[in-house]
């Protein structure tokens, strides 16, 4: 077929099980296409019925399309790979060594449809990526989202010791434990959108909760080296954001990580929320059946809630110790959280302002007093009140704040107290000379552009960190240390959600300067709303008709940037892995729709709340 320049030819194809169709392309042929397009439009309009700009709606549709495109059949049986193909050469002996790649994961049998980070460049699963994928999937296919979360807790995925597999090249690596958060959020999204706010999918919540408890135990046993509720974990998905490789320390060294510990505190709080929801729903079902509530069968989740409540307090106390200990993750001088490197008997603080010090914001939740009094009075309420009375040492840093207001009462749980520490952290996070980019929160303070951070050990330079808004020039972690300045969607999404929860407790009367030193005071809800829009506008055309995601009008080879200027290309979006910390240009894998697909959820929230001037009653 010859297609002359500027012309279009259309090829019609039809798949059928019938032979020799007399009229394969009848008038119904094109009508079928029109019907499918109309049905798709109706479906997505029902998903997002809010009054948002057409361009924003188109961005959301393309993000959803990318999410659906990244589903892939994944087949990898570790034992078969270790044994090698009987028809081929015998594999090298080192493959089966205990330190060989994935040699300790012989139970793992992948034979499923899985959401990939990127079916083109990263055609394998990644556990913490997948958790974020399920949030966007929950808007359009909650059953698939739930099945993905179930899958990674099944016995042919989860290790017998309770660990979840990380990714193909090293299942034993440690990813941030975000599955409890994702499970809770998917449950909430489906309950609100597809169940009218009625009873959620309790069977799903209960099933995954049981396995998440095993994973929690693995973390507690394996990653709290000294039993002090201070956790490590290596790079933890941040591809070595610090001055040294946190996954490969020297002999005799240990790292006590602000982010690892905060992830576990967040894990506790999400497990607490799930346990309280299960306790409530189990009692409600019992009452509906005319059974006596608060039996041992229903109250078992109260006792689990008490367990995670206590563990949260222990972790929060360890994070906020001020004096009296050789572990002090909170830096009183900078007003920021940090990692601690231990070298022999030395304790060396790494006073670097990075996402490591912002992740403690994620450990935040609220408890409604009315619900506690009605459903959790037999065990949880008693344990809660006991801690308030008898363990002031675990509540002195505002890790528990009681709410007693006219319109709401209960308790606010957080690592970062809702007052002084929060304001100190936000002053830096919301500063345009530090973390605040026009397109979200950077992964490293811009301060280090002109003032590199240098880590010294025994008088010798061990490593340094510069602010690098795009690709990193550092060779740590295989040359992929790209958390040294760019904007990443997953952590920005969690920052926004955390600010919304802080706002739910503190209300509009609690304000911060936004941006820092601007003289403009904003509530945390308004800050979260603006951060959402900064991320969304990465994909929106500016006043000159250019999208920040595609950079300038020229490529690095000084050629015309067709994605930016050509009408046939400029409206087809790519959802990159991460984004330039100063100009919003897409960087890394160009099709990593996975967690960048979170823009679909941000647009959903923007339509539901920001465009209507509304705020949710609960979160």
General description of the model:
With 619 residues, this protein is an alpha+beta fold. It has 18 helices and 18 strands. The protein has helices at residues 27-47, 54-69, 78-83, 127-140, 142-151, 179-193, 202-223, 258-288, 296-319, 369-375, 380-390, 420-429, 476-479, 489-506, 524-536, 562-565, 593-596, 599-608, and strands spanning 71-77, 109-115, 253-256, 330-331, 336-337, 339-343, 346-350, 364-368, 400-404, 409-414, 436-437, 440-441, 453-457, 460-465, 511-513, 521-523, 578-579, 586-587. The strands form eight sheets. A three-stranded antiparallel β-sheet has the order 3-6-7. A three-stranded antiparallel β-sheet has the order 8-10-9, sandwiched between helices. α4 runs parallel beside α6, α6 crosses α8 (258-288) and α14 (489-506) packs antiparallel against α15 (524-536). The model has no long low-confidence stretch (mean pLDDT 91).
